[in-house]
Design a protein that fits this description.
The protein is mostly helical and about 80 residues long. It has three helices and no strands.
Length: about 80
């Protein structure tokens, strides 16, 4: 199957939530976890609208990039 990395066997679970998805896909960066949660549930939680959730996801992604760059800079030092 093409793009096998996009498919995970979840047959052992009756239901899965965003936290299970993050674990199954090996997303361990807190800012990326936050962004993915925001993207999966954008506007669905009732107290923030979709645009606000998307802006917060962008902020979290930008922070993840900053952290990667900080780590790369630190590793070179």
């Amino acid at each position: 199957m093409e793009h096998n990395h996009y498919f995970k066997d979840v047959s052992r679970y009756d239901v899965i939530d965003v936290y299970r998805v993050l674990t199954i896909f090996g997303v361990f960066s807190p800012p990326l976890q936050h962004a993915i949660k925001k993207l999966l549930c954008a506007g669905a939680r009732g107290y923030k609208d979709e645009v606000q959730d998307l802006r917060e996801a962008i902020d979290s992604i930008l922070r993840a990039i900053e952290m990667i760059e900080e780590d790369a800079h630190h590793d070179k030092a």
